Amino acid sequence: MSRPGTLRMYVNGQAVDVPEGASVAAAVACVTSGFRRSAGGARRAPLCGMGICFECRVRIDGVNQLRACMSPAVEGMRVDTDG
Amino acid sequence: MAEHFDVLVVGAGPAGMAAAQTAATHGLRVGMIDAHAHPGGQVWRRDVRHGVPRTARQAIAALSTVEPLLQSTVLAVQARELLLETPHGSRHLQFDSLVLATGARELLLPFPGWTLPGVNGAGGLQALAKQGWPIAGKRVVVAGSGLLLLAAAATLRKHGARVLGIHEQAPAGAIAAFAWQLRHWPARMMQAVGLRARLAGIPYRTGSIVRAAEGARGLCSVVVEGPRGARRIDCDHLAIGYGLVPDTGLAQLAGCTMDRSGSHPVVAVDALLRTSVDGVYAAGEACGIGGLAAARVEGRIAGHMAAGALADASALLPEREHARQFARLLAHCFALSPRVRQLADANTIVCRCEDVRLGAIGAFDDARAARLATRCGMGACQGRICGTALAELGYFPRGGMRPPLFPARLATLASTGSHPFSNDNRGIST
């Protein structure tokens, strides 16, 4: 169970607590600085923070290619990165 | 089956909220659409630790008679109908009047190292911090141009970041001229004084440009060049943005005429914010970067217009002109130096989605040719980042928009079976 006012999520299998209202991007950043791999294999992370650049794409509860910065964190959510 | 609204407003920032609220005062059914989960837009984005400013709270509270359509992305528009993708599937919404309050995005320009994790937009890192990004104790360099740098630095500091400095590309003379002119806008002057107090102790360097970001797996340092030469600064994040660019994608898809006199398209509107398409209005940053005050008054004007209340709209025009004058001052004083456009070299990635380097682009003179040969602009962002950057760098304008406006789920597209939206019938027929 998470503490009051926080949500517990799992990023690449690792438990992480974020404040209620946080984005998935915040949870991922607690675990790794790499969100995805570019076409050329380089590590990438959010640039724009507002849903435009698509650099923060991750897998959320099994669904690929979702923007971490646009996805609200939810208790128990499982997020995987390729970074 | 499509639902009908008298007025639909796209965008729930200050302009969209004002438009929706104003249209609703005329007793109409008004829907307000936004991709985010909360109204407020970028400038009034909810902060997980500090909430929203009082002005924003009041504006949100005034929306009680407006139907919120949040976490919803507009994918296509045609014949007075919008196709939306929501977390629960697709929706078709019909409208009599449409207000485009789609706001702006940050102007992000390529330079060596800008693809490293740790390099963010200035407004970008501010938005991430407000959504709980772990920034406390991190060393941040803020750079680029405009007042957004100050607002971003203040937010980052409030969240515990160690802001090492703010590097403004505009020269000292331009900033001094701006400060002197501020006396004509007392409210803005007071805001500036307040910001300055919140930023006490953080160096503000003018004529100062980040030339490169360095690191292997992530950002380790930046090279900053100012009037007294270049130096290296070790840091964890670089928050860098060169101002704002109007978000005109939906307006283009709706068939609205663009003003293309500058580097980036702006929705062309008349004095009462009518676009070239009957029944479609635009307000705020989409019709030219104007800032918060302009967005709010233009939202009210567009809301009245969408409700057919021409006299109410006209009464607000002097207020709009005063706000737009401030925007012109900003644009003049924070104009980009040619140095900023020369930072990327042939080896710098310009299309981040497809890893296309600037050197591969040089031989082409339009976006389509470059796209076909190099895949530049074909990735998930649909050219929003590279197309805008290449236009600013003086290569060629960004290619036109096609539906779907954002990458969509197949299920959403399948739902359009009886509502085809191909390139042949995009736009609003009247």
How many helices of chain A does DSSP assign?
1
Q: Identify the CATH architecture of chain A.
A: Roll
Q: Specify the CATH homologous superfamily of chain A.
A: Beta-grasp domain
SSE pattern of chain A, N- to C-terminal: EEHEEEEE
Shape designation of chain B: globular
Portion in strands of chain A = 25-35%
Radius of gyration of CA atoms of chain B, rounded to a whole number: 21 Å
Largest sheet geometry of chain A: 5 strands, mixed
Question: What's the overall average pLDDT of chain B, rounded?
Answer: 94
Question: Within the CATH hierarchy, at the fold level, what is the topology of chain A?
Answer: Ubiquitin-like (UB roll)
Q: Which range does the strand content of chain B fall in?
A: 15-25%
Lateral arrangement of strands in the main beta sheet of chain A: 2-1-7-5-6
- Domains of chain A, number: 1
Overall mean pLDDT of chain A stands at: 95
How many angstroms does the end-to-end distance of chain A come to?
Answer: 28 Å
Largest beta sheet of chain B, briefly?
A: 7 strands, mixed
Give a short overview.
The complex is a heterodimer of chains A (83) and B (430). By secondary structure, chain A is mostly beta strands.
Word description of this protein:
The complex is a heterodimer of chains A (83) and B (430). Chain A is mostly beta strands and 83 residues long. Chain A has one helix at 24-29; strands at 6-11, 14-19, 36-37, 43-44, 57-60, 63-67, 78-80. Chain A has a single domain, classed as Roll (Ubiquitin-like (UB roll)). Chain A contains one helix and seven strands. With 430 residues, chain B is an alpha/beta fold. Helix content of chain B is 29%, strand content 23%. Chain B has 13 helices and 21 strands. In chain B, the strands form six sheets. In chain B, strands 1, 2, 3, 4, 5, 6 and 19 form a seven-stranded mixed sheet that branches. Chain B has a five-stranded parallel sheet with strand order 8-15-9-10-11, with helices on one face. In chain B, strands 12-13-14 form a three-stranded antiparallel sheet, with no helix packed on it. Chain B starts with a strand and ends in a 16-residue tail after the last helix. Chain A binds chain B through residues 18-23, 25-27, 29-30, 33-35, 38-40, 42-55, 57, 65, 69-70, 72-73, 83, and chain B through 35-37, 42, 46, 48-49, 105-106, 108, 115, 117-121, 123-128, 131-134, 217-218, 352-355, 379-381, 384-385, 407.
